[in-house]
Amino acid sequence: MKVLKVDHIGIAVKSIDAAKKLYHDILGLDDAGSETVEEQKVTTAFFPVGDTEVELLESTAPDGPVAKYIEKRGEGIQHIAFRVENIEAALAELKEKGIQLIDEKPRRGAGGAKIAFLHPKSTYGVLVELCEREAH
Ligand SMILES: C[C@@H](C(=O)O)C(=O)SCCNC(=O)CCNC(=O)[C@H](O)C(C)(C)COP(=O)(O)OP(=O)(O)OC[C@H]1O[C@@H](n2cnc3c(N)ncnc32)[C@H](O)[C@@H]1OP(=O)(O)O
Ligand SMILES: [Co+2]
């Protein structure tokens, strides 16, 4: 498998509107737009930074992964996303090598990407997202 870049860093926040005051107004990052991904129970907001992006994540439901993360650990970095060339091939290889997959098959992420998560127990305590998308 081949990791092409850090696609984005996912930061769990209670309020995207509030967090934008830092990331957009103060740090001056461009706001590349928001989207709700129902399957993940999140609203996302992307801020490009160099060759990668910050993804702010606000939960849409109290039982969603981002709400649970904030409840247990407070706001903070919830995941890191690696862009891969071929997500199906990457998942097959990781599974074969004994890495615990949360998603055996890709799901639909923000911006139409194909995404899948690896369990933090298998990845030194960091929730890892793999994603495949058209280059940008
Ligand atoms: C829209 C999309 C996109 O980019 O396009 C997104 O990003 S969606 C982004 C949001 N979606 C997701 O996160 C989907 C994948 N996430 C999940 O399936 C879940 O959040 C899990 C990662 C499996 C955690 O589930 P749950 O909260 O039930 O945790 P659990 O209590 O079973 O936790 C098992 C162990 O993992 C740890 N743990 C839980 N969440 C963690 C995280 N984000 N980073 C690092 N460690 C984490 C717990 O502390 C615990 O460790 P100890 O046992 O040592 O206490
Ligand atoms: Co993400």
TrEMBL record:
Ranges for domain VOC: 5-133
Top-level enzyme category: isomerase
Coiled coil: 77-104
Molecular function per GO: metal ion binding; methylmalonyl-CoA epimerase activity
Pfam families documented for this protein: Glyoxalase_4 (PF13669)
SUPFAM superfamilies referenced in this protein's UniProt entry, alphabetically: Glyoxalase/Bleomycin resistance protein/Dihydroxybiphenyl dioxygenase
InterPro entries for the chain: Glyas_Bleomycin-R_OHBP_Dase (IPR029068), MeMalonyl-CoA_epimerase (IPR017515), MMCE/EMCE_epimerase (IPR051785), VOC_core (IPR037523)
UniProt keyword annotations, A-Z: Coiled coil, Isomerase, Metal-binding
PROSITE patterns cross-referenced by the UniProt entry: VOC
Keyword GTP-binding belongs to the record: no
GO terms under biological process: L-methylmalonyl-CoA metabolic process
E.C. numbers: 5.1.99.1
Entry's family note: Belongs to the methylmalonyl-CoA epimerase family.
NCBIfam families: metmalonyl_epim
Record protein name field: Methylmalonyl-CoA epimerase
Species per Swiss-Prot/TrEMBL record: Desulfoglaeba alkanexedens ALDC
Gene: mce
